[in-house]
Fold this sequence. Notes:
By secondary structure, the chain is of the alpha+beta class. 19% of the residues lie in helices and 43% in strands. The chain is built from 2 helices and 10 strands; from the N terminus they run αββββββββββα.
Amino acid sequence: MKRIFITMTALLSFAAVAANADVVTLKNGDRLTGTFVNEKGGKLQLKSEVLGDLSIPVDKIASFSAEKPVAVVIKGQKPIKGQLELAPSGDWQITASGKSQNIAAATIDMIMVASEYDALENHNAKPWQDWKGASTLG
C-alpha cells in the first residue's frame, strides 16, 4: 500500500511539472516541453530541463502555446501583452481580456515573457549601478 502511494505521488508530481511547461509540437510530430524564453528573428527559444537551451525555427513548428503572458514587441507600436499561441497560418495569436488578435509574424520584432519585459521597461538604475566591468587609470 505504501509503495502504491509513493508511486502515485511521484506520478502526480511529474504530471504537475509537465502541465506547467510550455509545449512545442513540431510539424514532424515530435513534442518538446520546456520554458519559453523568447522569439526573435523567426526562431523560438525554449529552455528544456533535458535538452538545455533550444533554438527552433518557427516554420518547423505545428503548434505552440505559452503558459505565462507575453509581450509582443512590434516595430513602431506599443507592445501587446497577453497569452500567446501559434496560429495554423504561421502568424501569432495573442489573447488578452477575452479578445484574440492575429499578428503577422513578419511585423514582430520580438516576443518575450511579459514580466521580463516589464522589468526591462521599469529599470531605473544609475549607469554606475549596472557597471559590470573594470577600469584602470594606467
